[in-house]
Amino acid sequence: MDSKVAFITGVARGQGRAHAVKLAGRGFGIIGIDICADIPSMDYPNASPEDLQETVRAVKEAGGEIVALQADVRDLDALQRAHDEGVAKFGRIDVLIANAGITRLSAGGDRATIWKDIIDVNLTGVWNTVEVVLPTIRAGERGGSIVITSSSAGLKGTGTDKAGAQAYTAAKRGLVGLMQVLANEYAPDRIRVNTIHPTGVVSGMTVNDSMKALHEAAARGEKTTIGAMQNALPIDILQAEDIANAVAWLVSDEAHYITGVALPLDAGYTVR
Ligand SMILES: NC(=O)c1ccc[n+]([C@@H]2O[C@H](COP(=O)([O-])OP(=O)(O)OC[C@H]3O[C@@H](n4cnc5c(N)ncnc54)[C@H](O)[C@@H]3O)[C@@H](O)[C@H]2O)c1
Q1: I need a labelling partner for 36 at 20 to 30 A (CA). Which of 43, 48, 72, 264 fits?
Q2: CA distance readout (Å), 226 to 114, 124, 149, 210, 230
Q3: Residue 160 Cα to ligand 1 middle (Å)
Q4: Which of 46, 118, 132 to mutate to test the pocket of ligand 1 (most atoms within 8 A of CB)?
Q5: 168 an active-site residue?
Q6: 50 near 26, Cβ under 8 Å?
Q7: What integer pLDDT is reported at residue 93 of this predicted model?
C-alpha cells in the first residue's frame, strides 16, 4: 500500500490514457473512469468500452495496476461508486487528474443543449470529480496534487458564433477560477491544485470526421473556429504523451511547491 494512486477521468483514450500509462510506469496505481458512451449533442463519438479495455491493457503492459470503470462525470453517484471500488483496491488516492471533456466546434444542433452539455461535462463534471475524490486525498494527510485539464481556450478566447465553442471557452476559463479557490483552500493540507492548458492534441477530440471537415473548410479560406488556432513553435499539433510528460512532472515531488498555476502546454499558442 506504499505506492501512490492517481484517479483519472476520461481515461479510455487520448490524454487520459496517456496519463494513466505514464503514471503507471512511475509506479502509481490507477483508478480510471470514462463515460464510454456518446452524448447526442456532440458531433464526434466519445470513447467506447473497447477503448477502455485498451487502456487497461496498456497500463498493465507498463507494469501498473488499474481499476477501470464506466462512469459519467455528470453523475455524482456513479463517480462515488467508482471511487469506492478504486479505494477498496488501493486504499488511498494521492493525485487527481480531472481530464474528461467534450467539445463541439461545428454549426448545427440545438444551441442551448450544446451549451448545457458542454458546461455540465467540462465544468460541473470537474467539480463533481473533485467533490468525490478530494476527501480521500485529504484523509491521507500526505498532501496531494490535483491537475485540472483546461485548454488554451481557457486562457485566450477566440471569436466564434458557435454555441459549443462559446461554452467550451467559458467552461475552460471557469476551471481556472475553481482551481484558484481550491489551491488557496487546501494549501494548508499540502494539496496542490493547478490547471493545464494544452493547445491542439492528437486524440478522439481532434481526429474525427467533424474536425476533418473544419480543417478542409479552413484550408479553403472559410471562416471556422479553428482558423485562428496556431502555435508559435513550428508544430501543428501535440501528442498526448507530450501532455502526459508535463503532468507526470507536475504531480511529482519535483514540483512540490507549484500550486495555483495555470500552466500552458501549448507550443507558444497563448504568447503568439
Ligand atoms: N485534443 C485537444 O486538442 C485538446 C486541447 C486542449 C484541451 N483538451 C482537453 O483535454 C481533455 C482530454 O481530451 P482528449 O484530447 O484526450 O480528447 P478525447 O475525446 O480523446 O478524450 C476525452 C475522454 O473523455 C471521455 N468523456 C467524455 N465525456 C465524459 C463524461 N461525461 N464522463 C466521463 N468521461 C467522459 C471520452 O469518452 C474520452 O475518452 C479534455 O478535457 C479536453 O477538453 C483537448
Answers
A1: 264
A2: 18, 25, 20, 12, 9
A3: 21
A4: 46
A5: yes
A6: no
A7: 98
Task: Quickly count: other Cβ atoms within 10 Å of residue 245's Cβ.
Answer: 14
How much is the mean pLDDT over the chain? Answer: 96
Instruction: Please state the three-class secondary structure of 151-219 as a single string.
Output: CHHHCCCCCCCCHHHHHHHHHHHHHHHHHHHHHHHHHHHCEEEEEEEECCECCCCCCCHHHHHHHHHHH
Domains, the chain: 5-264 (3.40.50.720)
- Mutate-to-test residue for ligand 1 from 96, 203, 207, highest number of ligand atoms within 8 A of CB: 203
Ligand 1 in reach of 198 Cβ (< 6 A): yes
200 CB less than 6 Å from ligand 1? yes
Q: Is the CB of 99 under 6 A from ligand 1?
A: yes
**In this structure, which residue's CA is closest to atom 42 in ligand 1?**
101
pLDDT tens-digit map of 54-113:
999 999 999 999 999 999 999 999 999 999 999 999 999 999 999 999 999 999 999 999
**Over the stretch 132-153, which tens digit does the pLDDT of each residue have?**
999 999 999 999 999 999 999 9
Q: 159 to each of 117, 149, 167, 221, 223, how far by Cα in Å?
A: 21, 22, 12, 16, 10
| Residue 17 alpha carbon, nearest atom of ligand 1 | 16
Over residues 23-40, mean pLDDT: 98
For residue 270, give the nearest of 218, 219, 233 by alpha carbon.
233
